[in-house]
Amino acid sequence: MLLPQLAIVIPCYNEEQVLPLTYPLFADKLKQLQDKGLVSKSSYLLFVDDGSSDQTWQLICDYAVADEQVRALRQSRNRGHQNTVLAGLLESIDVCDITISIDADGQDDLDAMDEMVSAYLDGADVVYGVRNDRSTDSFFKRFTAESFYRVLNAMGVQAVFNHADYRLISARVLKEFANFKEVNLFLRGMVPLVGFKSTSVYYSRAPRLAGESHYPFSKMLSLAIDGITSLSVKPLRFVTGLGLAVSFLAFLLLAWIITVFFLGKTIPGWASMTAIVAFMSGIQLLSLGIIGEYVGKIYLESKGRPRYIISERVGMLPPVSSEGA
Ligand code: UDP
Ligand code: MG
């Protein structure tokens, strides 16, 4: 049987502290998968540097020079985690049978890869790595992450609960995925839209081996808003519903005012007027903000700018343009 060729795609942004710890683990894992006869000898690690400003790229280049199973790409500037993973995946389309994307920091259990590849060999085209134990994450991180998945699901985005960006994707799913042209990426919500047979493997999440998380609350919030607004129009329906509800309340208020007027009473009004004006202004600004998020998305998407730009390649096949990727 011909063994599948695997690319392990590892996005790295300012990870000089963590890479010396995790690179040997990735290299060992690849060797184990090969020794077990799960993947071909031509499989490799693909580090994608996201325009790091520390020694990350130098480290990756050293690995690539010393180890022929390491390939490396460098983004021309920092573009964020999602675009970096996408760069690694799309650059592997014509080379590999399967890709596994995983963070550089050792938080995701490498041993889950054996099960992922086995699931692929059993016929799955997408295998999601799902964290079934997040006890090493802080309470705040768990709470925000859980609320995030709940809101996503309520908005109709089909993201797998507790799955981040640790997943196996087959080349044929990647080829279809390449036709999803959006610039605003939320991979964990987009991949399920491609369809094909998928399954999950479970693992417990470890703490970062070194360095700091690049996802503070503000970045998580913006990923959440991006995820929702690029995959669902439910917030716009919410605005419509809100408008209807407020109009109905306004109608009741009007009926009450008219009734009181015909009863010959006067209503002292300053406080209630102020409250109503403030309430309405709040609702209008909220609605404008929600609509504005979508207008902003249209503006950014309409430019159709490239989703990643590779400035350097080490140990790679001849350059492929990101155009049409
Ligand atoms: N990352 C990236 N570009 C960025 C931020 C992060 O490529 O602008 C990478 C980072 O090096 C890591 C992965 O994305 O491999 C996940 O980031 P991190 O571990 O900081 O996030 P967390 O696990 O805390 O959500
Ligand atoms: Mg991490």
UniProtKB/TrEMBL annotation:
Its main location: membrane. It is an enzyme of class 2 (transferase). It is a multi-pass membrane protein. GO terms for molecular function: glycosyltransferase activity. Its EC number is 2.4.-.-. Keywords: Glycosyltransferase, Membrane, Transferase, Transmembrane, Transmembrane helix. It is found in: Membrane. One of its GO terms (cellular component) is plasma membrane. It holds the Pfam family Glycos_transf_2. The chain crosses the membrane at residues 238-264, 270-295. Residues 8-176 form the Glycosyltransferase 2-like domain. InterPro entries: Glyco_trans_2-like, Glycosyltransferase_2, Nucleotide-diphossugar_trans. Belongs to the glycosyltransferase 2 family. PANTHER family: PROPHAGE BACTOPRENOL GLUCOSYL TRANSFERASE HOMOLOG (PTHR48090:SF1), UNDECAPRENYL-PHOSPHATE 4-DEOXY-4-FORMAMIDO-L-ARABINOSE TRANSFERASE-RELATED (PTHR48090). This is Glycosyltransferase, group 2 family protein. The lineage of its organism: Bacteria, Bacillati, Actinomycetota, Actinomycetes, Actinomycetales.
